[in-house]
Design a protein that fits this description.
Blueprint lengths: L8 E5 L5 H12 L5 E5 L4 H6 L11 E4 L2 E3 L2 H11 L9 H16 L2 H6 L15 H21 L12 H16 L5 H11 L2 H11 L1
Parallel strand pairs: 1-2
Antiparallel strand pairs: 1-3, 3-4
Helix pairs in contact: 1-3, 1-7, 4-7
Length: 210
Amino acid sequence: MSLPKQAPTLVLGTKSLSSWSLRAWFALKHLGIAFHEVTLPLDTPEYFQRIDQYSPTRRVPAFIDGDIRIWDSLAICEYANELVGGKGWPAERSERAHARSLSAEMHSGFQALRNCWPMQAAARGLNVALTEEAATDVARVDSIWQECRGKYAARGSWLFGEFSIADAMYVPVVLRFDSYGARVSTVARQYMTAALADRHLQAWIDGAKS
């Protein structure tokens, strides 16, 4: 009799701070993929002592599934999408291309926003003025959310109606905007409200408090 396959492992950074870890974790949760969690405290001797066994880049997140190792958030999301038969992206090709473009934009951009408003998942009421470049990033995110909700709101509360990897890529920004009190459009605020009510995001926030 063959032994049951061991669930894969997701290696995370500190939940209050690690936005990239949240992206992979959130996607795996929404796609229904069971996994073990290993959390390494960022910027500590323990982190640097242990990270080499998981990630060649010495960064989190990392995903270990048997002999397979993946060390980038978007790559983990794409692997998870394959595990669930493509359910991580919209079914229609043009919408899938749109969702992938927005996800790649988040993956490679918005550096000014990241620098100005680092994620502090459990914090509220933070008062940090935006730089001009960060304010441009906020406006761009707002416009993305308005566009998606304008097109797909009838299908559900996520960016493309049903959950997709695009939501996983933007959910840390939801937390940033909530923590720092971003001034956004009514449509963007509605998206934030729906995302913040999600049980998986609430579980992450609870973990960030501990």
